[in-house]
User: Fold this.
Amino acid sequence: MDTVIRFAVFSIFIAYASSTKFVRKLHLKETTCPCSDVSYCDPITLADRKEVVGFDNVLDYYKQYDWNKLTTIIVTQDALEKEGVGFVCYAHQHKTRVLIATSITKDELRNATARKAIEQKYFAITKKYYLDGANIDVEILTPQADVRHGLSDYVKETNAIHKAFNPHSLVVTDVPWLPDVYQGHNTWALAKYSDFLYIMSYDELDVIPPCLAGPNAPIGKTSIGAKLFLDIGIPASKLVLAVPWYGYRFNCTHLSKDGICVTTKDGFHCIRYSLSYGQVSQILSQTEAVQQWSDWFKSPYLNHKTSTGVEQIWYDNARSLKIKYDLADSLNFRGVGIFTTNSLNYANASDPTNKEMWDALPLYNDSTISFL
Assistant:
């Protein structure tokens, strides 16, 4: 009978330890919740919902975002420290998780002691700001076995630390638009130890000659890359298709009658300059530039006359992004992502393209919508 009683007590404790109330007590043990409603310091506990994941490194205009759409937002340490806990209170009020973007060097990945120090550094930030987990954005080559294994261990250990503290936390790993495009990444291990992968479906244009202007994320390449993750055995429920809210401009040394822009190069690399969709919107509203559409790439572009010649700008808008969102939906992915949420013309709150871009996103911030 004593064994039965002990087992019952233990079961009750496990259930309590997994509850929001218990996790909140852990948070409040070191400090008092600064939010206007103390429940906003609680972790988000909604499970199995589809995702709209934003990435933000500025947070200047976050109150203009459509928080009915965002389920998770990844922020850099600098942006988080600038805005403080008030931003987290605001996100939690809208049932949106907040993750800290982490970084680590090759040498730190190789060294278990250094790696664990980095993990503890970001875990301390998670506790301090009442966050919901971590994002791992390691965009480095990992052909060496010790670096490759170190990255997998970094993801595994980060997830273990956060889950032990908050069972509802998320650990998300960024990966290139093609599996293993960074030599040696163990995509299967990264997927296994992450809650899901954030597929960076952008910067897909070749940057070596021949130097021709083109789209940041042509639908053909985006589709091929997305499907390859499924082909190598990564479950759709572990995949989020992140798309660009920015584009590139190219200085044309020659512009053909068919609109083909031959661009400049620097040695063996083609030259391009990034610009946000907000900047594109301003060019369209303030100049005689006319938006055009490539049916082959399913992408908009424009030719912009400058004092030195003509530049061609390729970008994504609500129309082209909706095609990509539909692709993710057709593949039953866990959801979609935005890089970056701060890329619109928020300084002009009346710019209609701000609303158009948010409206094109699917609505997943609802506990009744599940990817299962």
Summary: The chain has a mean pLDDT of 90.
